[in-house]
Specification:
The chain is an alpha+beta fold. It is built from 17 helices and 12 strands. α1 runs antiparallel to α2, α12 packs across α17 and α13 crosses α14.
Length: 412
């Protein structure tokens, strides 16, 4: 339940946001000022609101260096306070390790990174560098409260025809809460580790399940040392693009598994002494297993992008996400989407494009294929943007085309 004071706090913040929006509409402030100050206010409620805002603004902030720099701190450096940290748990881990034949040394009590649901420390396990991931205290209640507030606000959203947006967010409540299930995440890490442990291009950390089995809010895994994206030169990006796009395409189209949160904060760039370029991948809280049909539809989607076939792109995404046996309604929906300014040449598809498809399909009474459809599409579009940011020679469509013809690609 949401307490009365929480509702009052939310109402107060949203009134301030409406004031900011009024200033923007009256042209007293610009769009970037509106977004930055709205984010600062929203952090007082929940960082999940920032995540939702990022989804909505992908098309804008990734083409605006000012907003992109602002949002970077919400990838792997989400602000936190002492109230979010269970310091006793850190002590308990060292004691447990000592009692079970391990030598665990947490370097210090200052985290090296922080995400929306967890905070990260660096340490050593038997002299092997490790990352220690611990859930923020009370994060599950915070997420549930966030969705409860969204439900209340949906009454107003419906008045302004935002029903579909609310429904899409509501359908992902389970996916967001799934990020707090560390038993599930360690199994996902183990799955990817076993698939790519012999890869020359991809590094997945080995996870130490025993700790999670005894402490459900903890994951201990190998630490992957490397560069962050903003530290790369253009020459580096060209080299790392091969490793990243191999992982992206191979995992979806060959292995049929989708990393659900593949943003720059979850990718480490490794350049070895002998000039080999690899990527390390973290954060497997959201992983989706695709059916052969789903993987095939995404393959069709990429081929349609290569051919700049707007109708083919829409048909592939509708085929993936929705079921409707009424061909007349299906063609009507596709024709409406063809008239909209989405999937145009030279523009990477994003959240807003996917959202438009969902809105029109729901209006035509299409049924969602599975509860993860929207989340998977968000993950794919997020990955498309990241791939495009390597960007030396264009779009993800080109990199997919290279994936099809590159004789170095193989199933590890």
């Amino acid at each position: 339940m949401i307490y009365i004071y929480q509702i009052i706090k939310h109402i107060s913040i949203f009134i301030q946001l409406l004031f900011f929006y009024s200033l923007y509409k009256l042209k007293y402030v610009d769009f970037n000022w509106l977004i930055k100050n709205s984010c600062i206010k929203l952090t007082k409620l929940s960082y999940y609101y920032i995540k939702i805002l990022q989804w909505q603004l992908q098309n804008k902030y990734l083409s605006d260096s000012d907003l992109e720099d602002f949002f970077k701190k919400y990838t792997d450096n989400v602000p936190f306070s002492d109230e979010n940290i269970d310091y006793k748990l850190l002590d308990d881990l060292e004691l447990y390790a000592s009692n079970n034949g391990y030598k665990l040394n947490i370097i210090n009590r200052n985290p090296i990174g922080s995400g929306t649901v967890a905070i990260i420390w660096k340490g050593y396990l038997n002299d092997n560098p490790i990352a220690i991931k611990i859930l923020r205290k009370n994060i599950e209640n915070e997420i549930k409260n966030c969705f409860n507030v969204i439900f209340i606000l949906s009454l107003f959203y419906n008045c302004f025809r935002f029903r579909q947006f609310y429904q899409a967010i509501k359908d992902n409540q389970e996916n967001m809460l799934e990020q707090c299930n560390f038993n599930n995440e360690v199994n996902n890490i183990d799955l990817f580790y076993n698939i790519y442990k012999n890869s020359e291009l991809v590094v997945i950390p080995q996870v130490y399940k025993e700790f999670t089995n005894n402490y459900k809010n903890v994951i201990i895994m190998d630490f992957i040392d490397g560069y962050k994206f903003n530290q790369l030169t253009n020459e580096d990006k060209q080299q790392f693009a091969k490793a990243y796009n191999y992982f992206y395409n191979d995992s979806i189209y060959i292995k049929q598994i989708c990393h659900g949160d593949l943003h720059v904060g979850n990718v480490v760039f490794i350049k070895t002494a002998d000039n080999q370029y690899k990527i390390g991948v973290y954060d497997f809280g959201l992983v989706y297993k695709l059916t052969k049909l789903e993987a095939t539809l995404f393959c069709k989607y990429m081929i349609m992008m290569i051919n700049n076939d707007k109708k083919g792109i829409i048909e592939a995404l509708i085929g993936f996400a929705f079921v409707n046996n009424d061909n007349e309604k299906k063609m009507k929906c596709i024709n409406i989407l063809l008239e909209k300014n989405i999937f145009i040449k030279g523009k990477t598809s994003g959240f807003n494009d996917v959202s438009e498809i969902f809105k029109e399909a729901l209006k035509c009474n299409f049924k969602i294929t599975n509860k993860n459809s929207f989340a998977i599409l968000l993950s794919i579009t997020s990955s498309l943007y990241l791939s495009t940011n390597f960007g030396i020679n264009g779009s993800i469509a080109n990199t997919f085309n290279n994936f099809l013809i590159d004789d170095t690609i193989r199933c590890d």
